[in-house]
């Protein structure tokens, strides 16, 4: 039997809005804001209704908040481009930095090389193939060395699944933000 979602505020059948997923945060969306405005309108005192200017002020505040979120998202993109540019500028240079746990980054790298997709998007068969690769076995064996300082020439820049750039030095993965020396 199909379940019909009735909005408790408006009393209307809700066929377009999707349910929030867990972990979606506590952000107020435009749908949430409009639901709140409708609830305020329906439940206001008819003898002392809220002024139009009050409604407009709330709408302006919400739009201002949306624009600030858009600016923050833009700044995050610029930060990512800056980090990637900094990492790419180190290719061919000798650096000293801290080694990190390279297993996931190496899995993504091998998955992209073999199947054109990061590890998280591979089928179970493809994941098994990736895990048999000698680079994965070397990264797993090298886990106890995570945190050690490594010096060497940067061969390439690799990205983890969240888009953070790492430096690939002699089969080891270095955290860009722990580089203490560039020669």
Going by helix content, strand content and strand pairing, the class is alpha+beta
> Could you tell me the strand content as a percent range?
5-15%
Can you give the helix content as a percent range? 40-55%
Rounded to the nearest angstrom, the radius of gyration is 25 Å
- Largest sheet report: 5 strands, antiparallel
N- to C-terminal separation? 68 Å
3D shape: elongated
Number of strand segments: 5
- Kindly report the average pLDDT value: 81
pLDDT under 50 segments (min length 5)? 13-23
Number of helices: 5
Strand order of the largest sheet: 4-3-2-1-5
Order of helices and strands: HHEHHHEEEE
Which structural traits does this protein have?
single chain; about 180 residues; alpha+beta; 5 strands; elongated
Task: Please provide a written account of the structure.
This protein is 44% helix and 15% strand. The protein has a domain at 86-182. Mean pLDDT is 81; it is low at 13-23. The protein is an alpha+beta fold and 183 residues long. Strands 4-3-2-1-5 form a five-stranded antiparallel β-sheet. It contains five helices and five strands; from the N terminus they run ααβαααββββ. It has helices spanning 30-42, 52-88, 103-115, 124-132, 134-141, and strands spanning 94-98, 149-159, 165-169, 172-175, 181-182.
């Amino acid at each position: 039997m199909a379940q019909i979602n009735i909005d408790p505020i408006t009393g209307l059948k809700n066929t377009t809005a999707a349910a929030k997923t867990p972990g979606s945060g506590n952000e107020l969306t435009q749908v949430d804001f409009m639901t709140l405005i409708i609830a305020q309108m329906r439940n206001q005192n008819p003898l002392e209704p809220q002024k139009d200017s009050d409604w407009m002020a709330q709408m302006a505040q919400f739009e201002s908040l949306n624009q600030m979120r858009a600016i923050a998202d833009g700044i995050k993109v610029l930060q990512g481009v800056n980090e990637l540019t900094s990492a790419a500028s180190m290719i061919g240079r000798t650096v000293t930095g801290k080694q990190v746990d390279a297993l996931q980054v190496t899995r993504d790298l091998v998955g992209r090389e073999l199947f054109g997709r990061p590890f998280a998007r591979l089928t179970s068969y493809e994941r098994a193939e990736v895990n048999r690769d000698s680079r994965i076995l070397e990264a797993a064996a090298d886990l106890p060395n995570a945190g050690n300082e490594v010096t060497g020439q940067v061969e390439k820049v690799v990205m983890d699944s969240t888009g953070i750039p790492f430096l690939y030095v002699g089969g080891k993965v270095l955290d860009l933000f722990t580089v203490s020396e560039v020669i």
